[in-house]
Specification:
By secondary structure, this protein is mainly alpha-helical. The protein has one domain. A hairpin with a 2-residue loop joins β1 and β2. It is elongated. 30% of the residues are buried. It comes from Paradevosia shaoguanensis.
């Protein structure tokens, strides 16, 4: 009996270097989305988005490993989609906490949506869809940055003394 067996160390089906690449990329892609939020001093920023994407990635990787370990068993009822459902529900819960409603205003919707997207990017990356995770993260940055500028321009025109339309 070697030390790994003695402490119950499990050897994953996915090679460890692939697992670490996927987790690292999920953190990077979540950070890309979170950086934009951080830069504009939004409630959920860089750290939150990194943690969400990394957690979503890890939950999905664990689901893959569980399915690989027990999925082929006739007594198993493994369903990997349930893990993605759980990630989605967990991130939705966090996102809902970022949303504040006032009588004539709602704040935090974009932050909540960004958190939800960071979770999806984490899931995609954990499944090996690196390019998809990267492109979606870039798309999120474009949407968050360019459309923020457009919103500010529209809001400035609506202000008293603003330019007429």
């Amino acid at each position: 009996m070697d030390f790994a067996d003695a402490i119950g160390l499990v050897q994953p089906h996915t090679p460890l270097h692939v697992i670490f690449i996927r987790i690292g990329l999920a953190a990077l892609f979540g950070g890309m989305i979170g950086f934009e939020r951080e830069r504009h001093r939004e409630g959920a920023g860089l750290r939150t988005h990194i943690l969400i994407a990394t957690a979503a990635c890890l939950f999905t990787l664990l689901t893959i490993e569980i399915f690989e370990t027990f999925g082929g068993s006739p007594n198993s009822r493994a369903d990997p989609i349930r893990a993605i459902d759980a990630v989605t529900a967990g991130v939705a819960f966090l996102g809902a906490g970022a949303i504040f409603r006032r009588p004539h205003d709602v704040k935090g919707l974009t932050t909540g949506a960004g958190m939800w997207l960071a979770g999806a990017v984490g899931v995609a990356t954990s499944l090996g869809y690196y390019v998809v995770g990267f492109v979606v993260s870039l798309f999120a940055i474009i949407v968050l940055s360019l459309l923020r500028a457009l919103k500010l321009w529209i809001d400035a025109k609506d202000e008293p003394g603003g330019e007429e339309r």
